[in-house]
Amino acid sequence: MFQRRWYKIIDAFQDLKIRKITREEVLELDSSMLCFENVNTYEQYSRLKDAFD
Questions:
Q1: Which of 21, 42, 47, 49 could form a disulfide with 25 if both were Cys (CB 3.0 to 4.6 A apart)?
Q2: What are the backbone angles phi and psi of residue 43, rounded to the nearest 5°?
Q3: Residues 6+ apart with CB under 8 A from 35
Q4: pLDDT of 3-24, one tens digit each?
Q5: Three-class SS string for 1-53?
């Protein structure tokens, strides 16, 4: 990315292959849907960490 002198994050997405996934596909890997939790504080991090311990 930096070798091409891309400085905007949007430019990095041009080379990505993206596909939509279904809710069922996500549920197969993460039945509690924790992969979509937002983590901004230590408390949020701790709560999620505890869920995986």
A1: 21
A2: -65, -45
A3: 26, 29
A4: 666 678 888 788 888 899 999 9
A5: CCCCCCCCHHHHHHHCCCCCCCHHHHHHHCCCCHHHCCCCCHHHHHHHHHHHC
